[in-house]
Write a structure and sequence with these properties.
It contains three helices and seven strands. It has 139 residues and is α+β, with helices and mostly antiparallel strands. The termini are far apart. The structure holds iron/sulfur cluster.
Length: 139
């Protein structure tokens, strides 16, 4: 059996259940995933995504930076996170001032952790001022 250089204990990234996994890594590549038994979330069990769905980690076309385009006729190009976040914050501020906070809605994802989903609804309600928050699991 192939031996790992190291084993990383982490949380499955696919949904908010939060199953605990061990990633077996050799030459900086994940080659095996096992569910951990020492927790009360998944007791060592994993669904098919959590067990086998890790090819994307090493995919050559994986997005690693935000992409923006200067106009609709131009191609997307990588930009630093600070710049992308400034643009998004500026557009949210502009829309809220022009049309009011209820003109903005937030849709979050089951692929986020419960904590990330909590933060997004808190941001929507406390910072933007809208209760229009939904989740892909309701679609
Ligand atoms: S995708 Fe599957 S393995 Fe991963 S946290 Fe959700 S239920 Fe657990």
């Amino acid at each position: 059996m192939l031996q790992a250089d190291r084993v990383v204990h982490t949380t499955c990234p696919y949904c908010g259940v939060g199953c605990q996994v061990d990633l077996h890594i050799r030459d900086e590549h994940i080659f095996r995933v096992e569910g951990r038994f020492d927790n009360r979330v998944n007791f060592g069990q994993l669904c098919v995504k959590g067990r086998f769905g890790y090819d994307y980690v090493h995919a050559p076309d994986r997005l690693r930076h935000p992409l923006m385009r200067a106009s609709r006729s131009e191609d997307f190009a990588p930009v630093p996170w600070d710049k992308a976040l400034d643009v998004v914050a500026g557009r949210l501020r502009e829309i809220r001032e022009r049309y009011g906070p209820r003109s903005i809605a937030f849709l979050t994802s089951a692929k986020c952790t419960n904590e990330e989903n909590y933060l997004l609804q808190k941001f929507a309600r406390a910072v933007i001022g809208t209760n229009t928050v939904d989740h892909c699991a309701r679609l």
